[in-house]
Amino acid sequence: MTDVNEPGTASPEKIPAGRRPETEAVGVVGEAGSERPVAGSGDTPADSGGTPPDGGGLTDRHGGGRQLLRAFVHNLWAANTVTVTVLAIVLATLIGAVLIVVSDPDVLATWGYFTAQPSDALNASWTVVSEAYANLFKGAVVDPAAVQAWANGTGGWQPVFAPISETLTYTAPLVFTGLAVSLAFRGGLFNIGAQGQATIGVILAALAGFLLPLPPVVHLIVAVLAGALGGAIWGFVPGFLKARTGAHEVITTIMLNYVAISFLAWIIVQDGVHDPDRTDAISRPVDGSAQLPRLLGSDLRVHLGIVLAVAATWAVGWLLNRSTFGFELRAVGANPDAARTAGISVGRTYALVMVIAGALSGLGGANMVLGSTATALTPLVIAQIGFDGILVALLGRVKPWGVALAALLFGALQAGGNRMQSYASISLELVTVLQALIVIFIAAPALVKAIFGLRAARAARLSTSMAKGW
Amino acid sequence: MEPGEIHALLGENGAGKSTLMNVLYGLLQPDEGEVLVDGRPLNAKGPGDAIAAGIGMVHQHFMLVPVFTVAENVMLGAEQVRGGIAGFLDRRRARRQVTEVSSRYNLRVDPDAVVEDLPVGVQQRVEILKALTRDVDLLILDEPTAVLTPQETEELLGIMRSLKESGKSIVFITHKLKEVKAIADRITVIRRGRTVGTASPSASEDELAALMVGRTVNLTVEKAAAAPGEPVLEVAGLVVDDERSVRAVDGVDLTVRAGEVLGIAGVQGNGQTELIEALMGLRPVLGGTVSLAGQRIDGWPTKRVLRAGVGYVPEDRSVDGLVKEFSVAENLVLDIYDRPPFGSGLVLRPDAITASARERIPEFDVRTPSAEAAVGTLSGGNQQKVIIAREMSRPLKLFVAAQPTRGVDVGSIEFIHRRIIHERDIGTAVLLVSSELDEVIGLADRIAVMYRGRIIGMVGPDTPREEIGLLMAGITDAEQPGITDAEQIDAEQTGAADGSGAGSAATPDGPATPAPDVAGSEDNNP
What we know:
Chain A: Keywords: Cell membrane, Membrane, Transmembrane, Transmembrane helix. By secondary structure, chain A is mainly α. Chain A contains 21 helices and no strands.
């Protein structure tokens, strides 16, 4: 790795000798760079994005196609973000396969006489695992049978897009909560309260949805904004407490989660909110005028929420990297002392970050009641989107587009899991386990590195630069 | 390295001194070559191996647990246990060990003091103690004096001498020439990862400096006489507390005029930090007034003070000065990011930020791979130049610099000093706080000496060092001819700073008798 650092640290006087290969390397850097967004992380500036092009440029000093290929493979097998993520998913699927086998008593029985007749065990295991994952795929991406039916004219186009539609429906709220956690994290705050913020968001959005008699478009806008407002209020409280009293946001947000969830349970059964025709805990349904319009007709559940989610991703990306507030936020997040010394108001930034993060969570909550998954408040209306948002943020490396992709993966697992459960009789909980395993492997990159023998690209650079100190 | 030798490793920032020592201590693995200890190759996979081979290291940034006591820190990693498998910590034995080792080498430390309450110099003593209790033969001191006051430095040099006499070898990494000459038996100079020469301590400072940076360096600051103008900064009766609500600044009056450098000398921890932070609006002013060009600025938020034309180089660059994860370009606009052309309203203009960085990087001689490189990857001197560049590229009325050259290599010191004098010459008032007496004397047109939160003397730059040294020790009347009672002054200083007893100094039962040695060195250097 020492050679990687060389062009950087090379003194200006040395340049004549080193210049030439370096200019050649620039071309490679460009190419390597253009590969990366396709590979999955569009928003990887400083940390991971910097390393591989460097390395690529150097291994490729002498140019040539084969060299280029080698440089690409070299980078691919370095422990960069994309590689680790992909390998984490692979590892999680492998462990998931073991769990599928173990949890099926019939298949497990065949392993009992493995030494006598190994083919039984292997065949049975292969069948159950492949069926499970095939259904996961068919439920999340596309079902080849539906494509064939459409091509033959025996089926409509809707079944072809149904899996994608489901995936996107589950993705949208996770994008919002994932962004909420990420944004706070970049500002140096660990927002565990996305769940609570989304809960208050869903309450206000639903109330606005069935209490306010407004014309169609206005009603929807008001309901969505009400959701954002609810989340913002719930985010402001811990932000303000942190700024004023130094109360730790992890504690306050967790506590506010409980308050929000209990508040939801309470408000559902109040007069004017509770559905008079029902005896169970469910509120009145949201008016049609306040519902997010479906994008692909009434048969498919995908709705405007996913468009809003993409817009929110772009907005958060802009806010972080191209706005003065984003600069303050990142400075405070990375070094509050230096930010304060440079005249940035740390407390104000904390409060604002939490307000925006809360608003994002609130939008995620609004999605859950104004979209197609539910139209009325129930105690479980928002499921776990707040807590899943933390996982999504970690998987997305707290970068906006990374979060969007991570939410897409989680949404796909959710949608595919539903089909897997009904077609292959594999419990939906397997999906939860897969999600958890992926995040565990992401959180322990050293483990992935060790298992696959990756070069420690970034870590090595980090330690050399740390040692360079004096 | 020979036993009982002090070997100085001299080199500019980024020359590779620390990297070499980290290899020795097993923190990094060599790519090529090997290290021989007693003729056998050392293959240290981690600090544990190095300690086993008799190598101890005191890092520049201390590796201590702040909330533990001295004894607990010393035993950390080699805990004394009793009660068999139950494994109770034997704190009493650890205490005894600390007391024993500290008296053997005359390292006065209270084993029960909590580390975070101790001044930096004493914390360093704890680090040395920690290494010594592991029975090391070779002690590596990485820039040990970078964080010390002159007095603490003197004490450290005394300690090093006594260690040497008891047969320990010491590798002393530094870029302070004076200390090298004072203590080293042999000097190896490193430049850009190569040994460029070995010198004896008799070589002159200029020779060593030239060897270090590869060219001759101008160590004295050249400047014309100051032409002071109107008062810019006026401080009257300023009272400030530190974070423990202990009075740190106790009624300070100061005036800094346009076009002059006012230097504040003093042993660290006498209120200089708090004084400056109060000026910058980083610490509440409890009494008195601060005026900038006739306008009251006390109580203003930091941003407003900066906007009013105050440039500020904070004392601790890695904590207060820079966001290490940010690029050089972003750090260059850390306090003007929301001003045109870099930003207006909510919109930030990264292009303008990069463009301005491209201009300022060569102007301020910042050695960085690119404007986008994270500032944390630069060497200390270049990090400091980033701060200087940031603060000096807007129109200033007042420039406040705290320890502007701490932990900075000779080449960068020269550059920074020139920029400060340049700033003075274009009519800015400069307030300089430094614990390097040489720096204050070299740069300042007037010197205020601070002691226990007060200005106890205001002298000219031609005042003899000894006189300023006495003032720094809190002795205002020049009755005492020289330092006859070094022990007493010493005790007073440490007493004032840490409150820990100086009693153990009286019982030198080790092979060395360092007490007179320390006193002797105090005579040489005020």
